[in-house]
Amino acid sequence: MILNIRGDKLEITPAIKSYIEEKIGRLDKYLENPENITANIIARVRGIEQIVEVTIRLKKVILRAEETHKDLYAAIDLVSEKLERQILKNKTRMSRKHNTSLVKDMNINFDLHKIENEEKDEGKIVKRKTIEMKPMSEEEAILQLNLIDHDFFVYKDADTNQICVLYKRKDNNYGVITTE
After folding, report:
1. Does 38 lie in the same domain as 82?
2. Which residues pair with 64 in a beta bridge?
3. Confidence at residue 100, expressed as pLDDT on a 0 to 100 scale
4. What is the reported pLDDT for 97?
5. Structural domain count, the chain
6. Distance between CA 4 and CA 83 in Å, rounded?
7. Which alpha helices (H) appear in 97-127, and where do they start and end?
8. Sheet bearing 152-157, strands edge to edge
9. Rounded to an integer, what distance in angstroms lies between the CA atom of residue 48 and that of residue 165?
10. Does residue 77 share a domain with residue 148?
11. Is residue 140 part of a domain?
12. Residue 103 has what pLDDT?
């Protein structure tokens, strides 16, 4: 795989470059014709945190992963593991449909036996909750989100009467998903 490694407010030393090449290069075993695939890697610093972002464009899918850690090498490890899981998950989804031509179009090597063994590790729904929908403002929803210490909060907007999902972003801001 061709690796475009760039630093944003961070110098990419030969040691960092070598480590990235080793970790991201391991993904080649899952890809068909890896010499024709480019991975764009950006390593940056935000405060005391190191952020590694990787984007790999395949024919039918774009793999993207971002990880943050205080240690750059740990962030590289985490992003590599996340990409590997994404590749395997995409292979699993396509194999369930027995659509091997689509998997080949994605440039991912296809090993059905290995995929069937990995399917056992996929998550399943283990809990369901019913919540009371009280109409509230976005400000009230933010307070509720912070009180329950979750990554998201579902509420009914008092102004629009829409069901909304408030979520905490990695940059410590908030996002709102609304329904139509």
Report:
1. yes
2. 55
3. 52
4. 54
5. 2
6. 16
7. 100-105, 112-118
8. 135-136, 152-157, 163-168, 174-178
9. 30
10. no
11. yes
12. 47
